[in-house]
Amino acid sequence: MIVTEGLTKRFGKRVVLDGLSARIATGRITALLGPNGAGKTTFLKVLLGLARPEAGRIAIAGELLDGSPEYRANIGYMPQIVHFPGHLRGRDLLSMVQTLRGTTVKPDLSLAEAFGLTEELARPLGVLSGGTRQKINAVLAFAFTPALLILDEPTAGLDPLACRVLKDRILAERARGTTVVISSHVLAELEELADDVLFLADGKAAWSGAVSELTQKTGEHNLERAVARLLGGGMPYLAVA
Fold first, then answer.
1. Each residue of 226-238: pLDDT tens digit?
2. Comparing C-alpha atoms, which of 87, 76, 19 is closest to residue 53?
3. Which residues are within 8 A (CB) of 124 and not within 5 positions of it... i.e. 6 or more apart?
């Protein structure tokens, strides 16, 4: 369970998170949605310890975040855009991340095998295609059996087969009890994956609850249409469930 209370984050005079209070359930897939500038990226940075709020509290699995980095050992993060050192091989990168995590547990390369990356992991990252680097980005996120997965536009740049492989792995992670937070603009894709929605607007939680409840409240038959109705101003933002 992730619990936030009154998170406030400013960049200069601009308030990006404005007293954000929300709950993300353990062992479920939560879609983080909202219009551009709603505070989604900043919220993810706060979860990862890459940004510190000026006010409010956040707890992950009952542990109140106080600036200590240890909790991040239980997080797998897949950013939308990643810049790998071009001279490193994929296997070198995995080894480096393993060292940085301070673990002797060998990384799980089953996702790399599912992607068919065996040969690519032995090649310099700089000679690989963007899609292949994105697959390696995914492998890094899943490699150390995290309790929490944070995925930012995870299928960007992936071909349809790789998308299917990744989505199957995300569902398998949920089945084993992993908490997954996904930010994506591909709502039809999230329809297949998400159990819950956290919808941000103006730095606040405008909706938090099950996908089925959101579609019922908006009177729409799928997630894409429900969110489009909110974004289009067709009805007032819903209160947090």
1. 988 877 765 555 5
2. 19
3. 86, 87, 88, 89
pLDDT of 241 reads 46
Q: Given a cut of 50, is residue 67 above it in pLDDT?
A: yes
Tally Cβ neighbours within 10 Å of residue 137: 22
Residue for token pair 């089925």: 212
- Name the residue among 195, 153, 188, 147 with its Cα closest to residue 171: 195
For the stretch 223-232, contacts whose Cβ atoms lie closer than 8 Å and that sit 24 or more positions apart, written own/partner, are 223/31, 223/187, 223/190, 223/191, 223/194, 223/197, 224/187, 224/188, 224/191, 227/33, 227/187, 227/197, 227/199, 228/187, 230/199, 230/206, 231/35
Most distant CA pair in the chain: distance in Å?
53
Give me the domains of the chain, ranges plus CATH numbers. 2-231 (3.40.50.300)
**Which pair of tokens denotes residue 236?**
């007032």
How far apart CA 233 and CA 206 sit, in angstroms, is 13
- Cα 4 from Cα 16, distance rounded (Å): 15
Q: Tell me the pLDDT tens digit for each residue of 140-155.
A: 999 999 999 999 999 9
